[in-house]
Amino acid sequence: MSDEDQLKALRKRIDTIDEKILDLISERATCAQTVAHVKQKALEPGVKPVFYRPEREAWVLKHIMELNKGPLDNEEVARLFREIMSACLALEEPLRVAYLGPEGTFTQAAALKHFGHSVVSVPMAAIDEIFREVAAGAVQFGVVPVENSTEGAINHTLDSFLEHDLVICGEVELRIHHHLLVGENTKTDKISRVYSHAQSLAQCRKWLDAHYPNVERIAVSSNADAARRVKGEWNSAAIAGDMAADLYGLTRLAEKIEDRPDNSTRFLIIGNQQVPPTGDDKTSIIVSMRNKPGALHHLLQPFHSNGIDLSRIETRPSRSGKWTYVFFIDFFGHQHDPLIRDVLEKINDESVALKVLGSYPKAVL
């Protein structure tokens, strides 16, 4: 068989496979519609069913990754199934998800990575607005940044948890790649200012010191806002990611300029629904301790005694008094697990106040 004949045969086989894939996707979508009808039928009139189940989606993605035999890697296969599930869920009920805008931010990228591109993503001007929109029921979920591997905690998010009674329903981790972007009118040899979010400027500090030491660094509300400003100026550049570059039609003058190649940001999914255990979960709590010697030791002792692994602990000033603090703690396990219940009971006995922010599946993607 000639090479040309072999190519024709392979293309014909691919066409046949594509038709089978389409049939199976359509069958899955039909099943999703049936699920919606069954859920609605089982409820009292006027009661809205819960269509999005974080624990179910996490299980499906992990299951697919376990079954994957290549040649596509696990994350690539999971992303494909994420989009299929997103489209099928939209047939039941399109999700509205608030994120830190404007359009083109890393927070929007995190929202689409977690929920897929079939959701309705709603930009908000501030983190606190995301919390208010979710609390008011204007959107089902919100996506907020909580920590960066280079610069640490996002304090606006931690403070918002003190003011609002919402549940953490999930998490997503996003590799952050920063690019130096310019517009079509930019004179690259005359750049006198660089716009970006304060966190991004900090994450690229060494690169800027080495390549643009005398350029003014201007912090703005978001990387997307930085990209928007640059589009209309001739003497400025922006530090932003791929989404902002594509959205505003900017050119990458330099790519991946972050000081640490493993630069990542963790985002939390906030909502109003409790999430059942999946067997691979995390729990987040806020604790206010009495101001006395050994308070932190007493707080951490139950975790040590029960062999519970902490993943993060942060301290923020309390709103209740001067020089008093609250602790934000993330740890592995679900609040319904017997060992975790025992830890929470012991902490509750020692603390002034304990607030469980939620238990949720560990990030899959």
TrEMBL record:
Residues of the site described as Essential for prephenate dehydratase activity: 265
Reactions it catalyzes: chorismate = prephenate; prephenate + H(+) = 3-phenylpyruvate + CO2 + H2O
UniProt GO BP: chorismate metabolic process; L-phenylalanine biosynthetic process
UniProt main location, coarse: cytoplasm
Transmembrane segments: none
Signal peptide extent: none
Residue span(s) of domain ACT: 284-361
Pathway: Metabolic intermediate biosynthesis; prephenate biosynthesis; prephenate from chorismate: step 1/1; Amino-acid biosynthesis; L-phenylalanine biosynthesis; phenylpyruvate from prephenate: step 1/1
Family annotation (SMART domains): CM_2
Residues of the Chorismate mutase domain: 1-96
Molecular function in Gene Ontology: chorismate mutase activity; prephenate dehydratase activity
Gene Ontology CC annotation, any one: cytoplasm
InterPro entries associated with the record: ACT-like_dom_sf (IPR045865), ACT_dom (IPR002912), Chor_mutase/pphenate_deHydtase (IPR008242), Chorismate_II_sf (IPR036263), CM_dom_sf (IPR036979), CM_II_prokaryot (IPR002701), G/b/e-P-prot_chorismate_mutase (IPR010957), Preph_deHydtase (IPR001086)
UniProt-listed Enzyme Commission number(s): 4.2.1.51, 5.4.99.5
Chain ranges of the Prephenate dehydratase domain: 96-272
CDD domains: ACT_CM-PDT, PBP2_PDT_1
Compartment(s): Cytoplasm
Keywords assigned by UniProt, alphabetized: Amino-acid biosynthesis, Aromatic amino acid biosynthesis, Cytoplasm, Isomerase, Lyase, Multifunctional enzyme, Phenylalanine biosynthesis
Biological role: Catalyzes the Claisen rearrangement of chorismate to prephenate and the decarboxylation/dehydration of prephenate to phenylpyruvate.
Protein name per UniProt: Bifunctional chorismate mutase/prephenate dehydratase
Natural source organism: Halopseudomonas oceani
